[in-house]
Amino acid sequence: xxxxxxxxxxxxxxxxxxxxxxxxxxxxxxxxxxxxxxxxxxxxxxxxxxxxxxxxxxxxxxxxxxxxxxxxxxxxxxxxxxxxxxxxxxxxxxxxxxxxxxxxxxxxxxxxxxxxxxxxxxxxxxxxxxxxxxxxxxxxxxxxxxxxxxxxxxxxxxxxxxxxxxxxxxxxxxxxxxxxx
Length: 181
Description:
By secondary structure, this protein is an alpha+beta fold. It has helices at about 1-25, 80-85, 140-145, 165-170, 175, and strands spanning about 30-35, 40-45, 45-50, 65-70, 75-80, 105, 115-120, 120-125, 130-135, 150-155, 160-165.
């Protein structure tokens, strides 16, 4: 009898945890990461799995921001050092000193790209209602120079500004796809 009650209690706790997880997943809109001292938001719908940085095999005659190829769950993924790609730090130091907290973020397989982004640090999940959109008051000439994958800027309660990155647009960006040097 005690075993049945314990089993019912366990099932009740699991059901409530699953419900809480579903509710949290709906509230969280972005995965927040840090690269080159900047904060970035990736939409959860287009972000894939997160992996520790393992062995990266270099690829000859590729762009300096292309960190190499990694085996992620049995599939080869091209790895782009996001901070270097965006010009936030020199590529020579791309993997020095950032490996401990660095992670690989695979793009969602639905995007059709076997690619992962090397990010320096995960900063957690962010909900849309916890952020305020920054006014888009850039002059027209600066707005044109902004890449299509750069979404809105958002400010959190602590005052930190986060740049939204549209991973679907990034995965089709001509410069991003042009890894040959």
